[in-house]
Amino acid sequence: METSSPSRTDPPSPTPPTQWRAVLWMLGAVASFTAMALSVRELSDSLSVYQILFLRSAVGLPLIVGAAVAFGGTAGLRRLRTGNIRLQFFRNFIHIFGQLAWIYGLSVLPLATVFAVEFSSPLWAVLLAVLFLREYPTRSQKIGLLLGFVGILAIVRPGPEGISWDLVVVLFAALAYAGAHLSTRVLARTDLPISIAFWMCLIQTPLGLAVSLIDWRPVSAADVPAIFVLAASGLTAHQCLSSALRLAPLARVLPFDYLRLPLIAIIGAAFYGEAVDFFVLVGGAIVLSGVIVTQVARQEGGAAASGQASGKIQASGKIASD
To answer: How do the domains of the chain map onto residue ranges?
Structure first.
C-alpha cells in the first residue's frame, strides 16, 4: 500500500471550504487504509499471504471496471488507458513485493508497528530520488530525513541482537512502496489515478495467482466479506487520497494521516490484545513530522522553480516587445 500518491501538479493554496473537503477525503483514506489492514489480519488466520495478495487484485479488477462504466459509460473505460505501459509493469513489479511484505507484517506484528514503519515510505522515496532521479535534497529535506530516521530508531529500538526479521520485512515494504511512489509520480503526468489502480489490479492478478499456488488454502464463505472489504477499501483509499491531493497540497493533509496510528493501536488493543507501545506512537509522530518537513521543502522548491520559470518567460517577453 502506498501512503502517498501525488496528483499531477501541486494544487494552489486551498480556500477554507476546499481545505475542509480535502480533510474529509483524507479521513476517508484513513478509514480505508485501516479497513484494509483489519481485513488482512482477519484473512491471515485462514489464507496465505500470497492468496491475500491475489484476491485483493482479482476482486478489485471487476470493481474498478464496473465503477468506470457506471460513472462514465464507454468514456469511463477510456479513462483506464495508460500512456506508459512499460512503466506500469515496472511499478507493479516493485509494488507487488511491497504488498507481500506489508501483508506478511500485518499477520505477525502489532498493527500499530506496521503502520508506524510504513509512514517512512516517503522518506525512502526522497533517498531513491537522489539515487535514480538526481533530485538532490535541500537543507530542509535533510532535516526531515534526519527526523524521520530518528523516529524509525524509536520504533524498532535495535538491541544487542539487532532488528527482528519481521521488522526488516516491513522496512523493505516501505522501501518498495517508495519505489512505486516514484514511478507513480512519473505515471501521473499521463495517466489518471483510476488508470494506475486499474493496471495495478490487471498486472498483479496473474502474478498473484502464480505465487498463490505455492501455498493455496481453501477459501470459505466466512472469508468472503473480508475479501470484499479488502478489495473495496483498497480502491476507496486510492480514490480518497487522490481526491484530497487534488484539493490541497500533501503537506496540508498529511498530518491527518497520523490518526491512523492511534486508531489502529486502539483497535489492536481492544480486539487483538496488542499492547499499546508508547515508543511506536511517538516514533510514528516523529517519522510523520520528518515526512511533512520534506514535503513542505519539496513544494516550496517546486514553487520557487515555477517562479523562476515565470520570471524568465516574462523577461523574454519584455525583450521581445522591446
So the answer is: 16-137+165-253
Per-residue pLDDT of the chain (322 residues; tens, 9 = 90+): 654 444 444 555 566 677 788 889 999 999 999 999 999 999 999 999 999 999 999 999 999 999 999 988 888 899 999 999 999 999 999 999 999 999 999 999 999 999 999 999 888 988 888 888 777 888 888 898 999 999 999 998 877 777 889 999 999 999 999 999 888 888 888 888 889 999 999 999 999 999 999 999 999 999 999 999 999 999 998 888 888 877 877 777 878 888 999 999 999 999 999 999 999 999 999 999 998 888 887 766 655 544 444 444 343 333 333 4
**pTM above the 0.90 mark?**
no
Neighbours of 10 (CB within 10 A): 18
Instruction: Read off the DSSP letter of residue 213.
Output: G
Consecutive H or E run containing 275: none
Distances (CA, A) of 63 to 201, 228, 262: 10, 10, 30
Residue found by looking up cell 483524507 in the block = 26
Neighbour tally for 149: CB within 10 Å: 17
Helix (H, G, I), strand (E, B) or coil at 322: coil
Taking the mean position of all CA atoms in its chain, how far away is CA 214?
Answer: 27
Cα separation of 197 and 239, whole Å?
Answer: 9
Residue with cell 488507458: 81
Beta bridge partners of 162: 159
Alpha-carbon distance 236 to 60, whole Å? 11
